[in-house]
Amino acid sequence: MFPIRDHNPSGRVPYVTYVLMALNVGIFLSYVPILNDDRALYALYNAYALVPVRVSDGYGFEGLFTSQFLHGGWMHLAGNMLFLWIYGDNIEEEMGHFAYLAFYLAAGVAAGLTQVAFEPSSAVPMVGASGAIAGVMGAYLLLFPKAKVDILIIFVVFFRIFPIPAWIILILWFGMQFVGGIGADPNTGGTAFWAHAGGFVAGILGALPVWLKRGGVAFWNRTDGHPPHPEAKYPQINNSRIPKVRRR
Description:
Layout: E1 2-6, H1 15-30, H2 38-48, H3 52-56, H4 63-66, H5 74-95, H6 97-118, H7 130-143, E2 148-155, E3 158-165, H8 166-183, H9 193-214, H10 217-223
Antiparallel strand pairs: 1-2, 2-3
């Protein structure tokens, strides 16, 4: 089960979102040849990833930025770019191109610092744009809580697309990160749950000025939490089905 698109069209071209996606994909493709070379990959991460224990010791702060453009594999990259594509254009439209870029990078830094705060002695390198993208998701929750998001559910041989309010999928996602962070071992690899949670909260806080400028609670009341423009319409997609066989 995962989101594939929203019904919240943007009124301007999201140039910054496209550039961020291109940078992430381009940088990842540049080191694809060493993905199966553990020594070379470790050297890359050692140089550019975020290592919490280094920041705790007072150095390695550049990793707060450089780690945002590294990914651990194809699925890691694809998942992050999908979420950025779904939610990024609307936040860029609300904030403006340059403010959105600053917001995105700041959310990524806040995500990294949250990971450091909760796992200060961890020597495991952290990579990925998901902390910054979590910030975008937090902003989306604040500004468009009832925007429709299409969820694709795949179960063995059939699938179904369900439109659900954004707040359900976003709060569920945040809850999973919080619970995952509580049970995570700081000395092993895996998902940086606290970075996700920290980026999400930072995104909500960073979007507060935009929300207040829109009218705050009055903005929610005017739109009932929906985007303040007509929703996008998509062609109906029927479920895939197992062929039926009649019995005699």
